[in-house]
Amino acid sequence: MANRRRCPTALAVVAAVLSVAVGCSTDDETARAKAEEFVAATSAVGIAPRLTVGVAEALYGDDAAAVCDAFDGGLTSVERLILLGNPSGRRHKTITDHSIVYARLVIETYCPEQREHFRDEVEDLDPVESDKLPASAGESTVESTGESSGA
Fold first, then answer.
1. DSSP state of 94
2. In terms of Cα–Cα distance, which of 12, 21, 57, 22 is closest to 38?
């Protein structure tokens, strides 16, 4: 009699574990596919040469919620300061053309519905050309932001 009681309980536990495993594998597959797409996009324009699918997957998951949610409904003043820097001049944040291209690729890969919001936020920026930075400021790996630079 005790075996008959355990059997339905064991089946319920196995079913629950399998449903969780199937749900997780779908999210994992989506995250991996998005990461592969993102890494391919960064490689195509020559930025983030050391970015791996595993790192992109860990950073952005399947929806890059931390990035995409920031553009949902426009940036708050705090988000603008974090992303774009403090224009007061005391601590100027250097925004490079590479960082804009990278961010654009994140938006295009993970939340393309936010393209207009992103474009509105960066359209007035005057980014520093990455190849004009001193060598100590980081690697230079891209020439364009998707537009012709005349080079």
1. P
2. 57
CA distances from 13 to 46, 80, 84 (A): 48, 47, 49
H helices of 46-131, where? 53-60, 65-71, 77-84, 97-110, 115-122
On whether the CB atoms of residues 83 and 95 are closer than 8 A, the answer is no
Residue 128 has phi, psi (to 5 degrees) of -80, 135
Return the pLDDT at 126.
Answer: 79
| Single-letter amino acid code for the residue at 134 | P
The reported pTM is 0.65
CA–chain centroid gap for 121, Å, is: 17
How far apart (Å, rounded) are the C-alpha atoms in residues 95 and 93?
6
Cα dihedral: 110, 119, 82, 71 (round 10): -50
**pLDDT tens-digit profile of 9-38?**
444 444 444 444 444 446 889 999 999 999
Residues in the chain, total = 151
Q: How many CB atoms lie within 10 A of CB 86?
A: 12
pLDDT in tens, 64-96: 998 888 887 778 877 777 776 665 656 666 788
